[in-house]
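We were asked to recover a plausible sequence for a given structure. The inputs and outputs are reproduced exactly as logged, with field labels preserved.

PROBLEM: sequence recovery
POSITIONS: 272
GIVEN STRUCTURE:
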């Protein structure tokens, strides 16, 4: 760890307990580097999580942090942001935590365009609870709850976020770390609901169940199956099958929820 980054960690809680080869440490490191690059006061940041492998991250981070109930990170984050709009509120959540039990909170946080940055650690599986399939598990992939293959279609998280009203939407991977850091920087500074999907790896459950090989091999698969938005526009739908499209998908300036809410309060009080 770079010495200058140590201040962002609760070093007495390290080393972490993520499995060897897990990509979650890379995503967490990208979040820290983005914050460091932006030179934001640690006391002005609140990091919130739900339940899952990704949700262990705030326990290692030296900020105002909140480890909440399963799927409810965005509900708690909404309360924090409304109580103290000056805080930079960042939610670290997993694909199951965010899109299954937390799916309703996700779409309505996006609809409101509340100024929260949501980083989704997408490893295509419920890693903490023994490898059940999630709404992000690809069709045909194996899981402990899909021993003969998953028949559900998975979400396109970025399309879902944009359709629900998010005003900054991007996707990166744990292989393409410099790009991921820049996306997270952009998401944090954007005023409105920001979503960064971070495609990551779970060698323990997703990798073993699907015979993908070592963590290094899984990273190589991530490298070889990721293409840019511009490249994706030039190939057919059939060629795009199974690819991860990386980049910034959407950005717009739109009224932010806490600011609109404060206007209502002032209006009710008769304050100009």
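RECOVERED SEQUENCE:
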């Amino acid at each position: 760890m770079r010495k200058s980054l140590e201040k962002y960690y609760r070093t007495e809680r390290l080393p972490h307990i993520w499995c060897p080869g897990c990509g979650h440490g890379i995503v967490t490191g990208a979040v820290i580097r983005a914050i460091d690059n932006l030179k934001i006061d640690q006391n002005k940041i609140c990091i919130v999580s739900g339940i899952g492998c990704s949700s262990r991250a705030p326990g290692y981070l030296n900020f105002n942090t909140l480890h909440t109930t399963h799927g409810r990170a965005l509900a708690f984050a909404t309360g924090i942001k409304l109580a103290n709009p000056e805080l930079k509120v960042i939610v670290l959540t997993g694909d199951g935590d965010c899109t299954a039990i937390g799916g309703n909170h996700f779409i309505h946080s996006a609809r409101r365009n509340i100024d929260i940055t949501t980083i989704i650690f997408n490893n295509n599986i419920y890693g903490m609870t023994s490898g059940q399939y999630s709404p992000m598990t690809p069709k045909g992939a194996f899981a402990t709850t899909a021993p003969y293959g998953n028949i559900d279609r998975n979400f396109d998280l970025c399309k879902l976020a944009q359709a629900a009203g998010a005003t900054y939407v991007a996707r990166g991977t744990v292989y393409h770390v410099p790009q991921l850091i820049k996306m997270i920087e952009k998401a944090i500074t954007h005023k409105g609901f920001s979503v960064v999907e971070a495609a990551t790896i779970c060698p323990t459950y997703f990798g073993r169940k699907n015979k993908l090989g070592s963590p290094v091999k899984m990273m190589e698969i991530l490298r070889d199956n990721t293409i840019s938005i511009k490249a994706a526009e030039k190939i057919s739908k059939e060629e795009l099958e199974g690819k991860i499209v990386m980049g910034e998908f959407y950005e717009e300036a739109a009224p932010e929820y806490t600011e609109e809410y404060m206007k209502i309060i002032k209006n009710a009080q008769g304050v100009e």
